[in-house]
Specification:
With 68 residues, the chain is α+β, with helices and mostly antiparallel strands. 19% of the residues lie in helices and 29% in strands. The protein has 2 helices and 4 strands. It is globular, with a radius of gyration of 15 Å. Residues 4-55 form the RRXRR domain.
């Protein structure tokens, strides 16, 4: 599944978003293209209270699968 990378004005990475949502942000002038590869958008408004979901642990195998 394709996701678009997002950073805020302070260059902090945020959660990746669906391409349709990124297209809406670009059309509404709420974001700009930061980099074309990998495609990254930068938000024009800062959201200091934005939280980022930890995706690193969601891809790890359960303990029972590691012991095999």
């Amino acid at each position: 599944m394709c996701k678009i990378l997002v950073i805020d004005q302070d260059f902090r990475p945020l959660n990746p978003i669906h391409p349709g949502h990124a297209r809406q942000l670009l059309t509404q002038k709420k974001a700009a293209i930061f980099r074309r590869f990998p495609f990254t958008v930068i938000l024009k408004e800062s959201h200091p209270d934005a939280t980022v979901k930890d995706c690193e642990n969601s891809h790890q195998l359960p303990q029972s699968a590691k012991s095999r």
